[in-house]
Amino acid sequence: MDIIRGLLWVALGSIFGALARYWLSGAVARRVGETFPWGTITVNVSGAFAIGVLGKLASTGHGVFATPDFWLLAVTGFLGCYTTVSSFSLQTLSLARDGETARAACNVLLSMVLCLSAVAIGFHLTSMFLS
Amino acid sequence: MTFSTKTSRRQQFWNSAALYGFVALGGTIGSCARYLVAVFGQILFGSGFPLGTLFVNITGSFAIGFYAALAGPDGRIFASTRQRQFVMTGLCGGYTTFSAFSFETFQLLRNGHELAALLNIGLAPSWLVAVWLGHTLATRINRLKGT
């Protein structure tokens, strides 16, 4: 069945996405401290850039990047697991509950602006690179 | 006989490896769940507005808020670091996604559906309402009388 095949690709990509997120967000947090969720921002913004790149590559219709299997592995699997909204939400809530409302608002604004910018930049840089 | 309380480097390594293992396992399960939601969402609602991503991000935020309170310092359940990482970093982390949200919003904008893109962004605070709801609900449960 197609769904089973899809699940296998997603699962395979997810293993590495989870490991990468855990390692990188941890490494960033250890480096800059945990007063602000820079680790989560790092994975979410880099993941957004990457999906912009892969999205453009997929839209060309050529090569392995345009195949559904690759998308399931690299995007649904890896990037889907590499980025996270749950940590973002919980960390925003923690900041707000600790009375750090300005930091909480900054987390929301920064995450949104940086991620949406990153996906556009990834997409357009790839366009330029391909043409 | 002296009693050593330092964990050996080997123990530290295996401890760390176990944590990574649980995160990877939880992440894989969460991701697969997200994929299934997307598949069924597609079957039920088609490819218009990214409802599947919205659904997982809202429910995933609720879940992590709920679990964080339930397994937290004032929580009813005791959870080991391994369990917490499995559930929060693993399951919830894999189940939710910022990359799909970013790309889907970008696609909506690119394809001329600016209002839909703005709506998608405008609905993002619903994730935060969800995490707060989950946390508040679990806190109430924590405070119930009895064991």
Structure report:
The complex is a heterodimer of chains A (131) and B (147). Chain A contains 5 helices and no strands. The mean pLDDT of chain A is 96. With 131 residues, chain A is mostly helical. Chain B is globular and about 65 Å long. Chain B is mainly alpha-helical. In chain B, helix 4 runs antiparallel to helix 5. Chain B is built from 6 helices and no strands. Classes of the chains: A mainly alpha (131), B mainly alpha (147).
Query: Overall 3D geometry of chain B?
Result: globular
Number of helices of chain B: 6
Specify Rg of chain B, calculated over alpha carbons. Answer: 19 Å
Care to count the β-strands of chain B?
Answer: 0
Uncertain stretches of chain B: none
Q: What proportion of the residues of chain A is helical, as a percent range?
A: over 70%
Oligomer: heterodimer
Q: What structural category arises from helix and sheet content of chain A? A: mainly alpha
Q: Choose one word for the global shape of chain A.
A: globular
- Which sheet architecture does the biggest sheet of chain B show? none
Decide which structural class fits the backbone of chain B.
mainly alpha
SSE run of chain A: HHHHH
Give the strand content of chain B.
under 5%
Distance between the termini of chain A: 38 Å
Roughly how many Å apart are the termini of chain B?
Answer: 41 Å
Which series of helices and strands of chain B comes N to C? HHHHHH
Helix content of chain B: over 70%
